[in-house]
């Protein structure tokens, strides 16, 4: 593998599940950006948000993008907000990484994240509205960032089969 593949998309789109499966299939390392940030910071993402605010998290995320994009080729599951920032998109482009968008509908996100309390941005009583609004706002940004897009509303094996048909290595 000559370059990394960064999976991009909204919370609950399957970046981690699909990324891990692809990495295993292709025998390359897998890195989850939120796990990387948590290890660097020594605390959970939700704790970073609670104690230091979103702006601090975005700074750590920007640093993580720089380090991971420059590292050895691997599959990277980015955080759902990371590639809404043009600076981070540019970082991945500078290192010739391919950006792959896992495209999902709000209902898919709501179904998958039912009962989840690990996403600070969705810890709200009006979760459905929050998902719809944020996804509508972010979708055009994801689309600008992405080199490739796949429908990821189905089960992971279906999404993986779609990804395997893409010319990701050209
Ligand atoms: C965020 C998504 C999360 C995590 C943080 C912020 C976002 O990652 O980075 O809670 O802004 O969408 P996942 O997409 O892996 O849930």
Spell out the key features of this protein:
single chain, 170 residues, alpha/beta, 5-stranded parallel β-sheet, 5 strands, binds shikimate-3-phosphate
General description of the model:
The radius of gyration is 15 Å and the shape is globular. Helix content is 53%, strand content 12%. It is of the alpha/beta class and 170 residues long. It has a 5-stranded parallel beta sheet with strand order 2-3-1-4-5, with helices on both faces. It has helices at 15-26, 33-41, 45-52, 54-70, 86-94, 106-112, 127-145, 156-164, and strands at 5-8, 30-32, 75-77, 98-103, 148-151. Bound molecules: shikimate-3-phosphate.
Set out the fold topology.
Elements: E1 5-8, H1 15-26, E2 30-32, H2 33-41, H3 45-52, H4 54-70, E3 75-77, H5 86-94, E4 98-103, H6 106-112, H7 127-145, E5 148-151, H8 156-164
Parallel strand pairs: 1-3, 1-4, 2-3, 4-5
Helix pairs in contact: 1-8, 2-4, 3-4, 4-5, 6-7
Strand content: 5-15%
Largest sheet: 5 strands, parallel
Low-confidence stretches: none
Rg on CA atoms, Å: 15 Å
Q: List the ligand species.
A: shikimate-3-phosphate
Total strand segments: 5
The share of residues in helices is 40-55%
**Discrete helix count:** 8
Terminal-residue CA separation: 11 Å
The arrangement of helices and strands along the chain is EHEHHHEHEHHEH
Mean pLDDT: 97
Shape: globular
> In what order do the strands lie side by side in the largest sheet?
2-3-1-4-5
Helix/strand structural class: alpha/beta
């Amino acid at each position: 593998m000559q370059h990394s593949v960064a999976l991009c998309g909204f919370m609950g789109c399957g970046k981690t599940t699909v990324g891990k499966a692809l990495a295993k299939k292709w025998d390359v390392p897998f890195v989850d950006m939120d796990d990387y940030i948590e290890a660097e910071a020594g605390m959970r993402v939700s704790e970073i948000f609670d104690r230091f605010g979103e702006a601090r998290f975005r700074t750590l995320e920007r640093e993580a993008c720089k380090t991971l994009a420059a590292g050895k080729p691997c599959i990277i599951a980015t955080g759902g907000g990371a590639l809404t920032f043009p600076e981070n998109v540019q970082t991945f482009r500078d290192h010739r990484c391919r950006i792959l968008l896992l495209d999902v509908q709000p209902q898919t996100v709501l179904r998958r994240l039912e009962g989840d309390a690990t996403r600070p941005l969705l810890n709200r009583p009006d979760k459905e509205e929050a998902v719809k609004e944020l996804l509508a706002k972010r979708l055009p940004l994801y689309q600008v960032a992405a080199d490739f897009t796949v429908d990821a509303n189905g089960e992971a094996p279906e999404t993986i089969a779609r990804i395997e048909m893409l010319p990701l290595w050209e």
